[in-house]
Amino acid sequence: MTLHHEQFDTIIIGGGQAGPGLASNLDARGEKVAVFQESAFGGTCLNDGCRPTKALRASGHAAHAARTAGRLGVHVDGVTVNVAEAVERKDELIGGWRQSGSEYYENHDTISYVTARARLAGKDGDVYRVEFGDRIVTARRVVLNPGARSVPPPIDGLDQIDALDHHTLLDLKEAPPRLLVIGGSYIGLELGQIWSRFGSRVTILQSGEHVMPREDPDIAAAAARFLEDEGIEIRTGARVVRAERSGDGVTLTMDDGERIDGDRVLIAAGRVPNSEDLGLDTVGVETDARGYITTDEHFLTTAPDIYALGDVNGRGAFTHTSYQDHEILADHLAGGERSASGRIPTYAVFTDPPLGRVGMTLAEARAAGITVSVADYEMASVTRAALDGITPGMVRLVVDAERDRLVGAAVLGLHGDEVIHSLSMLMHLDGPALALGTWLAIHPTVAEFLPTIYATAEPDSASDDA
Ligand SMILES: Cc1cc2nc3c(=O)[nH]c(=O)nc-3n(C[C@H](O)[C@H](O)[C@H](O)COP(=O)(O)OP(=O)(O)OC[C@H]3O[C@@H](n4cnc5c(N)ncnc54)[C@H](O)[C@@H]3O)c2cc1C
Fold this sequence. Notes:
alpha/beta, FAD/NAD(P)-binding domain, Enolase-like, domain 1, 3 domains, seven-stranded mixed sheet, six-stranded antiparallel sheet, 22 strands, binds flavin-adenine dinucleotide
């Protein structure tokens, strides 16, 4: 810990995906800056989120590619996954990034980077008091970047069965023979597929009507199909009410009385913002009913000079949104024009193949009263997908027909996480949807089909009834 001062211009509480970058930016402008990060450098994304899961996804992908290579005339016998080795590779990658990041900030000449939990403790005149341990430091501006955390759902006995979460699962050295996943949204699907490829027999229990509840049902169904084709069992409408140990394993009971046995249970049933122990009430920072800190389009909270970035402000739940929050705030503090208003939601679900998403779903566009044209296209008809032999999925373009603007898209299938960027760039530039029909794309790629897909767009009859 290096505390260069007692009084700062800016104190950042929580070193998530926004805090360190903002600290560097403000430091470069001559501010006295402190960052308080209670745990390992890099927050959720680096330690227990995006990066470790995608490192393990690469191992799962390689196993699946080898097992299914026969369709390409390539025969690989006896594919096994050494989970301990995959985890070791993941740890080496993550450890390297964590070490270089923490060494940089911990040894910084001017930024005070402190490994400690901190909280607001009222105001002294026009400066905020921040406490950590038994010490108090002050700043005229405070930035909150404390992230979010997974929460177990209210299931009787869940605390008695040594359930896994996205922290503990990532360190298993062997795949449990039967893995029960509670939650069929993005994290449950990504992790369920990886461990299925590692050798677990995976059952995903989703209480709602379909997996990925925020997506259009037919897109979610297409994803569920390819997961099921790989041998993953998906049960929808499966509300777990009780968990208990049975022998060396576990038994989960559904609300209709059905029981299902497994060896381990993974909880992937939602996340809540880390806002309850930040001393917000001592300075007048308000949250909404779910605990997300209320902010304006420059991330200013309800207290002057206190800002909230990342998952905790409810304006995104991704590394890229948190990172962009810091860029927007840095620009705003320097007198720039950037703001979060009008930011177009975009993300990927890293199933394999992935789902790339931007803007509205079809259901959202209908509900917004937009006169929609919609193009749906099977990935199996895309030349590159056929060439690579990876044909599951579909592409959807949702167009505001009156304004000639793309308002949303889903690319589920090969390279969906990359292809979506050309569509998101078009929306970012507010370009005409017609451009999709006239641009020149490279053959043979998935993106080259966007003009063809756009040409199939038809008026959506359901949008008239919305
Ligand atoms: C399994 C999983 C996979 C994911 N995959 C992706 C993905 O592929 N792509 C993507 O974009 N997003 C992904 N996410 C989401 C992504 O990790 C988060 O959106 C991102 O980390 C947001 O970060 P943040 O800046 O809000 O804070 P975080 O990264 O959560 O970091 C906040 C840090 O602040 C610390 N902290 C909290 N309170 C205090 C305090 N009072 N004092 C000091 N420190 C404090 C916390 O311990 C934490 O380390 C994934 C998440 C999970 C769980």
